[in-house]
Sequence to fold (126 residues):
Amino acid sequence: MLSRFCRYVDKVFDLGSMVGKMTDRRVRPTIPASSIWLSGFFMFAMRRGSLNALQVDLRVHGRMEKLIGPDKPSPDTVARVFGLIDPEPLRKMLATINHRLGRNKALKSEWSLRFVAVDGHEFFSQ
Fold:
């Protein structure tokens, strides 16, 4: 299910190229900012309650190596680096996703400003 979700998100929103542009203020990072951001993203997508719950999934051999890479971050690293990530690529990513959702008629609005709240996520629910 996770691989289907990742293919869909990459196909519709081109998430892979947008995440690849993420940077942070670390001098010589051993784990890229994109891998750390994806770890946090998957925590929400898989409905894990905390970073420690995500650590169980990250430590399973071969589970997310294609997506995050062979060097997986610890929960402390994810929390620390999230505060150091440059917000400008995140703003551009959200603006691009918002624009694509508007063009796909997923968000109907007569106003120029939109606000979207997402409460949980279920893969392919009916």
The chain is about 55% helix and 0% strand. Residues 11 and 46 are 19 Å apart (CA to CA). The mean pLDDT is 80. Helices lie at 2-13, 15-19, 33-45, 51-59, 65-68, 75-82, 87-103.
